[in-house]
Amino acid sequence: MISSFFRMFKSGFSSFIRNGWLSIASITIMLLTLLILSMFFMINVALSTGIKSIQEKIDISVYLKENIQQSVVIDMQYDLAGLKDVKSVNYISKDDAMAKFKIQYATNDKILNSVASIGNSLPASFDIKVYNPDKLDTINTELSQKKYKDIIDKISYQDNKSVIQSLLRATNYMKAAGIGITLVFSLISLIIIFNTIRIAIYSRMEEIEIMKLVGATPGFIKGPFLIEGAIYGFFATVLSIVMMASFVYFASPSLVSYFSDAGTSMSNYLTDNLIYIAIIEFLVGLIIGVFSSWLAIRKHLKIG
Amino acid sequence: MIYFEKVSKLYKTKEGTQSEALDDISLHIKPGEMVSIVGHSGSGKTTLIKLINREIKPDQGKIFIGGLDYDKLKKRDIPYLRRKIGVVFQDYKLLPKKTVFENVAYALEVAGVKVKDIKERVPNILELVGLSDKVNCFPRELSGGERQRVAIARALVHQPRILVADEPTGNLDPKISWDIVEILLKINEMGTTIIMTTHNVTIVNKLKKRVIKLSDGKIVRDEKMGRYGTK
């Protein structure tokens, strides 16, 4: 068993070396398709992280009426935080709001002076963040209940509803398009890789015929071809991973500077998950190589 | 050893008509015999070889080789049958990316022979065909005669009881052709049954062995110590 596997491996490897140009051509095509696929994967990651950071910025600000008792505020914050779609509820008191305002307009003396003369007219508010921006409407309905009527002055979502919903529709559409395009390209890549290996095996059909004529069983013929397919997959994925890792390493600073938050999260995502992406790509490459070879050689192995 | 009983083989032409390659032939070849199958191109010689190696099936009749009924042979048994018969092809059919040693060794590898045995048997057979100095050459580096010797070595290395050679001297000059035939004679003397198709008048006449002549798919002559022609 071990000796026949060793024989199969040796034969596959020597055939890989001796069919040098064919091997290089197959690996190059596999590499290019894997790189295109990786590129789409990265675009998808960039798109998802970009969309995520946009969606994270969408929140509801609930402005409270004047002179609401602290205990009522605490109860309301507790109730809101308990809702299943709510990620966080941040209370911003009148003083906090003013402090923020002053920081924001620190360089504008005119505004600061007029505010100082009027006094603090900014309302206290809740800043509500949700897990899924699609649920903002549910939160809005919750806040519109009778029990909050005497507490809430204004809900920001009601003013921005149409803009937020258009933004959500656009981001969801982009997300779906990203996944769709990646899937289509994955399929195209699979077809290209399969056909490359099929042509490589077809060019050696005579060799397969000879093997059959000297008494080789289909399994004996198939083994080295599958090993060759695995070697194609191995080299193509290793090269693709090296190129992708280099891209992430060298392009990270530019990504961060051009796309700010989205660039940072994309760069972080790729750096943090590079090892997993590499392992997955490696396994996928090996499986595609072996599976394509198996599929391509099957029909040439019929005897009798 | 080899029985053909009323065997016929038809080929379909592109026009959809059928042409008869072998027409109701019966023959019996005994163990240890050396038989030359002669005849013009298209007379059915190669079809006969292909039937023995089970590359094709007869349309009618029965074939028994070494006691094996070809009708009862399952597809999965064909590789094992081919390991019992050595075949030398006119166009050599060597694996282009394997060396002389590897080409010959391949016939043993398919049968699961151990590496140690392969390392002993291959050099011996290459010495028998006079190719000891070419073990590491690739087929493209060899002359026609040398390639044919490799093909013979590969057909013989697993010590088959039957060796079938399709025009083994077809592409070779007279001197090298006779060298090849001498190798076949040597093997025959060791007890291997040899069936050889040929066009070579000189060789057939010089051999003074059994000659079967085919014409239009029929056996028109079968002589124990025959010649190529009747005179």
Helix content of chain A: over 70%
Shape of chain A: elongated
Summarize the biggest pleated sheet of chain B.
Answer: 6 strands, mixed
Q: How many helices of chain B?
A: 7
The total beta strand count of chain A reads 4
Contiguous uncertain segments of 5+ residues of chain A: none
Encode the helix/strand succession of chain B as letters: EEEHEEHEHHHEHEHEE
Question: How many independent structural domains of chain B?
Answer: 1
| CATH architecture label of chain B | 3-Layer(aba) Sandwich
Helix/sheet category of chain B: alpha/beta
Care to describe what's here?
The complex is a heterodimer of chains A (304) and B (231). With 304 residues, chain A is α+β, with helices and mostly antiparallel strands. Chain A has helices at residues 2-18, 20-57, 70-81, 94-104, 109-118, 136-143, 156-202, 205-213, 218-298, and strands at residues 60-64, 86-92, 125-130, 152-155. Chain A has a four-stranded antiparallel sheet with strand order 2-3-1-4. The relative contact order of chain A is 0.15. Chain B has one domain: Rossmann fold (3-Layer(aba) Sandwich). Chain B is globular and about 45 Å long. At the A-B interface, α1 and α8 of A face α2 and α3 of B.
